[in-house]
């Protein structure tokens, strides 16, 4: 296929940044640090490899802006010493004519409160006014470091049950002050964080936000609880757009989707490693889970597309679509029909970083990703470097 006729090959501008095509590497924690927030050579090689694979926009895995807001394996952006190593990454990516945004986050989920019940309280309900002011300030300072490190833009993570998403949720956020109660109050922290970032980086630097179109999570214990609705998400997106946000990545959070690897894929992988006994044990242990949470239930291609269309209909800024995309033909349809402006890929690029080049060169073959979700076993608390267990290109 001629690239001139391929909608995914069309360039796009976010703020004043030119992006060479419509394919996005969505943020996924790399777990390629020394355990203290410093990136390793593997981190640099990972992003160099992605940039050579043809993807237009790379969004890094989340970086913590405050020591209290980190998870094991996260890269840090909370102090100036992080700038120089990260500048090596951005230089490497720019050599391949790719664009890279840094994702910033406050990731801790809960705070343990000493009570007779031993109950774990959600963080929004335990933060003092001074705590909140410090967090907002840390986001602003981190944004300045992102810009100094040579990134082309910044993404604020306000999804996936992390701190800002917790504040947005009526179910989670039980505060009685100006940060809780009404939807506008619950949106306040997200908007104030955005404004601190904008003040720090200036008007010409792209600032985008990652938002859930809906969220179903284990607020305390199963079953799944509706924590964010589409109506609330659209309202938040409109207010962020009005405040000056340059684009929205639309995602969603379903705690069971991909939470555990599909049993048979896990067994097959263990057998390829010569671990027959362990494979048999896993088969027994995962069978009860597999009856409830199985592959067809947690992986549904394009399962978020209806909500993405709603964002595109109601907003005027670019919409980055996250919806389990695997089929290039369908991706092209989304862009052609103006249902979104860019297509986000996560697991397919973990599996095959050259997938974008193949698409742009006219190959309409589906992603080689098995949807086994075994790459998720690299994430906290395991802290193993992110990789595809079937495709060992990064090793």
Shape field:
globular
Spatial strand order of the main sheet: 3-4-7-10-11-13-14-15
Number of helices: 13
Low-confidence stretches: none
Architecture in CATH?
Alpha-Beta Barrel
The total domain count is 1
Work out the radius of gyration: 20 Å
Q: Would you give the CATH topology?
A: TIM Barrel
Question: Total number of β-strand segments?
Answer: 15
Helix content: 25-40%
How would you describe what is shown here?
This protein is of the alpha/beta class and 395 residues long. The chain has one domain (3-258, 299-370): TIM Barrel. Helices cover 37% and strands 16% of the residues. Strands 3-4-7-10-11-13-14-15 form an 8-stranded parallel beta barrel, surrounded by 7 helices. It has a two-stranded antiparallel sheet with strand order 1-2. Helix 1 (41-52) links the parallel strand 3 (23-25) and strand 4. Helix 5 runs parallel beside helix 6 (230-243). The longest helix is centred in the middle third of the chain and has 20 residues, at 129-148.
């Amino acid at each position: 296929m001629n690239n001139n006729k391929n909608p995914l090959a069309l360039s796009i501008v976010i703020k004043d940044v030119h992006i060479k095509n419509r394919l996005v590497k969505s943020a996924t924690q790399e777990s390629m640090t020394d355990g203290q927030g410093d990136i390793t050579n593997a981190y640099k090689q990972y992003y160099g490899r992605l940039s050579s694979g043809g993807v237009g926009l790379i969004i890094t895995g989340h970086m913590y802006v405050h020591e209290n807001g980190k998870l094991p394996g996260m890269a840090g952006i909370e102090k100036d010493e992080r700038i120089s190593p990260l500048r090596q990454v951005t230089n490497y990516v720019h050599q391949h004519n790719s664009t890279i945004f840094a994702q910033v986050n406050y990731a801790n989920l809960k705070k343990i409160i000493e009570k007779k019940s031993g109950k774990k309280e959600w963080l929004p309900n335990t933060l003092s006014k001074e705590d909140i002011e410090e967090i907002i300030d840390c986001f602003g300072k981190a944004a300045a470091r992102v810009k100094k490190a040579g990134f082309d833009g910044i993404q604020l993570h306000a999804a996936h049950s992390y701190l800002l998403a917790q504040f947005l949720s009526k179910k989670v956020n039980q505060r009685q002050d100006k940060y809780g109660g009404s939807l506008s109050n619950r949106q306040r922290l997200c908007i104030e964080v955005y404004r601190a970032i904008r003040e720090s980086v200036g008007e010409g630097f792209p600032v985008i936000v990652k938002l859930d179109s809906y969220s179903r999570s284990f607020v305390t214990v199963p079953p799944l609880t509706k924590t964010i609705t589409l109506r609330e998400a659209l309202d938040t997106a409109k207010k962020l757009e009005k405040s000056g946000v340059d684009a929205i990545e639309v995602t969603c959070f379903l705690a069971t989707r991909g939470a555990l690897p599909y049993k048979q894929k896990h067994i097959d992988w263990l057998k390829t490693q010569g671990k027959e006994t362990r494979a048999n044990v896993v088969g027994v242990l995962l069978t009860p889970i597999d009856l409830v949470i199985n592959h067809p239930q947690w992986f549904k291609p394009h399962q978020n597309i209806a909500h993405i269309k709603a964002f595109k209909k109601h907003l005027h800024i670019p919409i980055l679509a996250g919806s389990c995309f695997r089929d290039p033909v369908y991706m092209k349809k989304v862009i052609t029909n103006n249902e979104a402006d860019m297509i986000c890929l996560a697991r397919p690029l973990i599996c095959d970083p050259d997938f974008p080049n193949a698409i742009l060169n006219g190959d309409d073959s589906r992603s080689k990703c098995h949807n086994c979700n075994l790459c998720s076993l690299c994430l906290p608390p395991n802290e193993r470097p992110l990789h595809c267990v079937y495709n060992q290109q990064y090793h």
